Amino acid sequence: MKFSNLTVVEHPLIKHKLTIMRNKETGPKEFRELLKEITQLLTYEATRNLPTINVKIETPIQTTVGEMVEDKKITIVPILRAGLGMMDGILSLVPNASIGFLGIYRDPDSLKPVEYYLKFPPFSENHYVFIVDPMLATGFSIRYAIKKVKEFGVKNIIVMSLLSAPEGIKNIEEDYPDVKIYTASLDEKLNDHAYIIPGLGDAGDRLFRTK
C-alpha cells in the first residue's frame, strides 16, 4: 500500500531495535532506551529538509561561513502520555527546541480523541512543529493534534511515530495531505480494539509499567 505523505525509515539498526521492542519480555528500562534510540534515527531523516542559515565563524585556521539550523524555531509536541518517550530522542539532536504538550485520551466506545490538557509555546508561521506519538493507530489523536497546531497558523508540521497502521495513515492523508509522516514500521492493520497488528501492545503501559 502506497501513501504519498509517508516515509518508512528503513535501516538495519531500526529493524533490530524494533524487534527487541516488540518482544513481550522486554522490560520498561530497555523499552525506554530503545524508543529513544529509534527516535534519534527517525529524527535524522525527519529533519533532512530543515532550512539552514549562513553563519560566519572563525576556525583555528581562518574565517569561513557555515550553515546552522534555527532550532529555536522548532517545537516538539509529544501527545501525552506515550509521546513523552520520544521527546528526549529529538532533544538530544535539537536541544534548543521548544516543547508543547497536548494531553489526549481515546474514548473507549467511540475511539475518538478527548482533550484534557494543552500548553503550547508561542508559534510563528515559519515554525517547524514535530508531533510525536509512538503508535499511529486510528490516526484520530494525531489528526486532532494537527488541527490544534494549525489553529496557530503553523504550516510546517511533521509527524513521527514508531509504528503506524494503514488505517491511521489514510485518515491523516485524507484531511492533511501536506503533513509528512515518518515512521519506523508500517504494520499490517488494526484489530477489533483498534490496536496495531502485529504491533507491540500499549506503548504507554510498556513505557511506564502501568499494566
Q: How would you characterize the overall build of this protein?
A:
The chain is α/β, with parallel strands linked by helices and 211 residues long. The chain has a single domain, classed as Rossmann fold (3-Layer(aba) Sandwich), CATH 3.40.50.2020. It has six helices and 13 strands. Strands 1, 4, 5, 6, 7, 8, 9, 10 and 11 form a nine-stranded mixed sheet that branches. A two-stranded antiparallel sheet has the order 2-3. Strands 12-13 form a two-stranded antiparallel sheet. The radius of gyration is 18 Å and the shape is globular. The model has no long low-confidence stretch (mean pLDDT 93).
DSSP E strands, number? 13
Classify the helix fraction into a percent range: 25-40%
Class of secondary structure makeup: alpha/beta
Mean pLDDT equals: 93
**Name of the CATH class:** Alpha Beta
Strand content: 25-35%
Distance between the termini: 33 Å
What form results from the Cα inertia axes? globular
What CATH architecture do you see? 3-Layer(aba) Sandwich
Radius of gyration: 18 Å
Order of helices and strands: EHHEEEHEEEEEHEHEEEH
Binding site for 5-phospho-alpha-D-ribose 1-diphosphate: 81, 106, 133-141, 202
EC number: 2.4.2.9
Catalytic activity: UMP + diphosphate = 5-phospho-alpha-D-ribose 1-diphosphate + uracil
Enzyme class: transferase
